[in-house]
Write a structure and sequence with these properties.
five-stranded mixed β-sheet; globular; 60s Ribosomal Protein L30, Chain: A; Cytotoxic_necrot_fac-like_cat; EC 3.5.1.44; 161 residues; alpha+beta; Probable chemoreceptor glutamine deamidase CheD; single chain; hydrolase
């Protein structure tokens, strides 16, 4: 067993071989992972917001879907991944609170998931699996050696995607 590498909120990291990336408490945030199955290289970002373009204080690139995924891509390539082999998995993007208004600004989880998918599509990185939406939090683990993602939810158990 390799090292367990924790990814905090608005944070990202990469791993190789037997290492495992993990992030806790994905609510409306989206956990985005990129994996190269041949090089056994993986990356994970804990994305809080869909776009850095609408926020003035946007110096933390890992916080936003548009900048985090680009930075994550750069880091996995530096670690030996090949762009043509990359696949992605997503989890999170929940609607954690119910609002009576139909205001889209409150649908941050859904907006995070949509933004993440759009960026991965633009970068031509296929999404091989996802566990998004709902109204519950998730903790995820990505195994760099296999690309297996475990999605753990309180009261709902653990599933493998």
């Amino acid at each position: 067993m390799g090292e367990i590498i924790k990814v905090g909120m608005a944070d990202l990291n990469v791993a190789k071989d037997e290492d495992v990336l993990t992030t806790l408490g994905l609510g409306s945030c989206v956990g985005v992972t990129i994996h190269d199955p041949i090089a056994k290289v993986a990356g994970m970002a804990h994305v809080m917001l869909p776009s850095s373009k609408t926020i003035r204080n946007n110096t933390n690139l890992a916080k936003f879907a548009d900048t985090a995924i680009l930075l994550l891509l750069e880091k996995v390539l530096k670690l030996g991944a090949r762009r043509t082999r990359l696949v992605s998995k997503l989890a999170g993007g929940a609607q954690m609170f119910s609002f009576s208004s139909k205001n889209d600004i409150m649908k941050i989880g859904e907006r995070n998931a949509i933004a993440t998918k759009e960026i991965l599509n633009e970068l031509k990185i296929p999404i091989s699996a996802e566990d998004t939406g709902g109204n519950f939090g998730r903790t995820i683990e990505l195994h760099a050696s296999t690309g297996i993602m475990l999605v753990k939810t309180i009261g709902r158990g653990t599933k493998q995607i």
